[in-house]
Amino acid sequence: MTSELTNQHEEPIFDVAQIAHVEILSPTPKETIAFYTKMLGMEVVEQVEHQTYLRAYEDNYKYSLIVTEAEEAGLGHVAWRTTSPQALQRRVKALEESGRGTGWANDEYGHGPAYQFTTPDGHKMEILWEVEYYDCHTDKRSKLLSRSQKRPANGVPVRRLDHINLMSSNPAADTDFLVKTLGFKVREQIVDNDYVVGTWNSVSNLVHEIAIMQEPTGVKGKLHHVCYWYGVPQNLYDAADLLKDHDYFIEIPPNKHGVSQAFCMYAYEPGGNRVELFGDAGYLILDPDWKTLTWQMEDVPGNGDAWIGAAFPDSFWTYGTPAPAAVPIKAVAE
Amino acid sequence: MTSELTNQHEEPIFDVAQIAHVEILSPTPKETIAFYTKMLGMEVVEQVEHQTYLRAYEDNYKYSLIVTEAEEAGLGHVAWRTTSPQALQRRVKALEESGRGTGWANDEYGHGPAYQFTTPDGHKMEILWEVEYYDCHTDKRSKLLSRSQKRPANGVPVRRLDHINLMSSNPAADTDFLVKTLGFKVREQIVDNDYVVGTWNSVSNLVHEIAIMQEPTGVKGKLHHVCYWYGVPQNLYDAADLLKDHDYFIEIPPNKHGVSQAFCMYAYEPGGNRVELFGDAGYLILDPDWKTLTWQMEDVPGNGDAWIGAAFPDSFWTYGTPAPAAVPIKAVAE
Amino acid sequence: MTSELTNQHEEPIFDVAQIAHVEILSPTPKETIAFYTKMLGMEVVEQVEHQTYLRAYEDNYKYSLIVTEAEEAGLGHVAWRTTSPQALQRRVKALEESGRGTGWANDEYGHGPAYQFTTPDGHKMEILWEVEYYDCHTDKRSKLLSRSQKRPANGVPVRRLDHINLMSSNPAADTDFLVKTLGFKVREQIVDNDYVVGTWNSVSNLVHEIAIMQEPTGVKGKLHHVCYWYGVPQNLYDAADLLKDHDYFIEIPPNKHGVSQAFCMYAYEPGGNRVELFGDAGYLILDPDWKTLTWQMEDVPGNGDAWIGAAFPDSFWTYGTPAPAAVPIKAVAE
Amino acid sequence: MTSELTNQHEEPIFDVAQIAHVEILSPTPKETIAFYTKMLGMEVVEQVEHQTYLRAYEDNYKYSLIVTEAEEAGLGHVAWRTTSPQALQRRVKALEESGRGTGWANDEYGHGPAYQFTTPDGHKMEILWEVEYYDCHTDKRSKLLSRSQKRPANGVPVRRLDHINLMSSNPAADTDFLVKTLGFKVREQIVDNDYVVGTWNSVSNLVHEIAIMQEPTGVKGKLHHVCYWYGVPQNLYDAADLLKDHDYFIEIPPNKHGVSQAFCMYAYEPGGNRVELFGDAGYLILDPDWKTLTWQMEDVPGNGDAWIGAAFPDSFWTYGTPAPAAVPIKAVAE
């Protein structure tokens, strides 16, 4: 390859490292927290007024989930961590130039200064570098060095935050913003002829840290789901069995996705937000020159949604939070 | 954080993307190939004189394994792919400056120009950018877009190459070379007081693409093992069951590692090289500021080697290829 | 308990031990056999004219499946083995008295004299005591003493025959016949108010060796499915993945049944007969005084059919073989 | 087969149905109960003076485990349920004739009159027919009809009692007693030339409800282990992971047995008694004419003990309860 061609190759941006935490809104925070702690083995690390901070036992930072009391369910915000403080500055500059930045937040619990911004659709996000790591008392530590605390004895405990999925009135616009401003790469997408219905995007080797899916009524800024990870496909059956016996609503039972190939399942927590659980994270994208995989919408049912599983119900394509008042929240807490 | 502190933070090098392929040497290539094809479901894509090129069904490139006929078992070479052609140039420059480069190879099957070099211990490596992707006839394609070919019906088929583990007379020196010249990060290590016994190093979110372990007799350039990945822990029991019934030697049965947390097992292929199989890849390192985890050697048995499993046998710490003539090759092909 | 009450307790009949083999009919025997051998790892032990005898690698007897060429798919016959030769005589006597016996068959391949009979709905059955055990050449034997031959390296190999499910114009009548004449116990049943829609019946600790389900159009003597067993839930995903990639029709993906609690999935073999695969056999009935569990039909979808899984499609309740000409056989062989 | 030969066939005795419950002794009952409840999800149903009654969530009867406070760990007694009240009378008669009976117990919690007896080695046993079934409040019931109560949210919950393993100064004598007096069948055995080292015996389709193993020092009446069942192999890794993080002693990590083929693991509860956990129950013996499988002791390590797993440690063959004072109890409760 000549140096001419070499110089024409656009190098990837490696400035964003991972999803750091997610804030969800719940009209029934007590029930939502019971769901995450009793069923999914998460732990409350802090409670401040209307906000509760939770972690999974292999989350590295202090917390990965914030549950905020609000009138309606939905997305609070998503936080991204950069690969370095210099990378934070570069991304902040790009965000400022995009016009979507809203300024710095300097007094957040558990992390340093975060630059806040919104997607074109209005989803709130922030980007940061400094974080506080989780550190527990000696008797809670595991001898397994990569594990931040002992495996919990309650529920079927999730190990770490995995990704987020947002609904958008214009997935192409939101995706474009993530790609251009933050360096996300579109790993898989679903299109209806040329119209972009959904994109799965990552900055890491995961198939996605963030997916964007069409909100079919054009409502903006909705949450599709937050996903936690087990690493073991069989644990999905254990979790589903527990949730079902305790009267939580399972929207889609364990199956193997086509997109991402991950073993997954979906339930609704009592506040109404959809929760996804990953058995494994699917395949990893190690190829630095990965070309986006494109599914035609008509080929998706029974292949793209679930490669091994029944085609997903309509609710998967239509339900998000906040949900219209007419749609009853289907989860009944124990 | 002041810009002074910001500028002091050393940004990671993101130039190496992944392990592209591995070449192993076998005195009994026919039996070695039978092991990989009949037991592990791999496919031969090309055979040229004394070299056979094989792939797993979710390997993206033409092949991931080369089996070369030789007098003794051991490592042929390891190939790395960079994140861009510019990154290749940067790494080649660093390698040239290190004095360990040996020049370009331009006529390799399945990839473009590769710059060749050795580790301090003498292991042969190469680094490249251009690769040929696997493309199969329509009737071999899977509807699952991320899968390069249909799941094979033979053996318990592995999905992709995962990593390599080399034995070295001086793990610290080899590790240092990988870190400084290629941008590898030491994710976990085992030390005996201060002496580095083993390192697990990656450029991706995997805990390691390459491990370096002490060769206890001081012999240089040995191979510890090559690892292929299933993604599903249970498949290790299926593979072990098949291998055992077909008289292959299982050195260490399925267990969950402490280092990496991966579900794994070890067998010897008939040529004598150790083979590792991963059920899952363990935990992923998404934290951009990951601090190396350090195990003291005395704490390792029953914790670091196997978190859930018996302490590894001595052979794990002593056997590598080429093996001394006195050590009989333990695998008997069917 | 007084001896009066004791004497009133009706002791179970322990005369029938197990399902010994099943004969299915196929209009495309070559494709049917390819399905069972290449995908499910079964082995052909004998081929006589239009009949092929197959076995799974942990079947104790010579074979467990006969594939007979015929114009239409469907059930050939089911064979039961008694607990002793005396038990055979007792059951033959009961069958003769029932008027459903059709006489002895003395020259069958792989077993001794079998007394033939039909269910009220016309399904052909036979009962026997003497069988020929599978015995293989030394090099095919496994060191695992309970395993009759080495684990096959082809497909995702099933381990043994598990059960049969027949469709009937009158499930209550057929069930009654099995209970009174052969000593079957009704373990679980589905009723529509009082009308018996389906029964799951066994003579062993399994929840069922034979199920009887309502044929909704009143056609007699149909086959619903034959089931083979893996023992490991995860293997269902391996089998489904393989079948899907090789273009076989998966009617119902892996799920956990409510009835029996078994992990299961359903596919159609190319001849059109439905095939069930069990990951595990569900719970075992060790209680000697087990009371039949009764599901109301309206409670079944999403609970009885699949406890963890989507409610079964209509085809599960309507499709059986032979299928009406209007219903296309959905399996396309590779 | 002539009626002469028919009459010579010895018909099996079907009088004993299952293992009903086990009583173990513990010098630290509080810690023992914490182990079973917090780690293994069992529930205390009754506490009377020094006895605590526990159940697993799919045990049909009120309880399956009694923990009795005593100076030393070990076996309290084993209880068997017959297939009918008539069967109870037949077995009591046989036990009386054997001279090993010790009389009726009429006031036991949770079951009717039980006839008590001992094995030649002195292990206490009882046999009964009438039992009290578990019945819970509506809000604890599961919609899954075969499940007696909702899946617990604590620990990695076991589903039901599976079997017991006793150490004996003379395994052949104890086995013979079980066979002749109760109708047990020897399914697998380990011999040292002709000397019987261990037997695996059942009355059901399970490979064993009771195993007898040589106590190497000749001490009588010891307990080797009590086993609970999950039904899913992967759950053993979840249980082992939890136990390890909470500092319980894991004697043998998850592996697949040769004898029985069951996925299993062994730990010590804090009182010192060995606990086995079954992932699945292995293969089932449906063949009514099953011939005992015989392993030579020298072939057992790495094949009979663990088919897929490391050869068992010496402690497996030597440790039982009560343990000699010199042997420290290895479990440290959290």
TrEMBL record, chains A, B, C, D:
Keywords: Aromatic hydrocarbons catabolism, Dioxygenase, Iron, Metal-binding, Oxidoreductase, Repeat. Its EC number is 1.13.11.2. The keyword Iron applies. Its cofactor is Fe(2+). It is an enzyme of class 1 (oxidoreductase). One of its GO terms (molecular function) is catechol 2,3-dioxygenase activity. Residues 18-130, 160-280 form the VOC domain. Pfam families: Glyoxalase. CDD domains: BphC-JF8_C_like (cd09014), BphC-JF8_N_like (cd09013). The keyword Ribosomal protein does not apply. Gene3D superfamilies: 2,3-Dihydroxybiphenyl 1,2-Dioxygenase, domain 1. It catalyses: catechol + O2 = (2Z,4E)-2-hydroxy-6-oxohexa-2,4-dienoate + H(+). InterPro entries: Catechol_2-3_dOase, Glyas_Bleomycin-R_OHBP_Dase, Glyas_Fos-R_dOase_dom, GlyoxalaseI/FosfomycinResist, VOC_core, Xdiol_ring_cleave_dOase_1/2. Belongs to the extradiol ring-cleavage dioxygenase family. This is Metapyrocatechase.
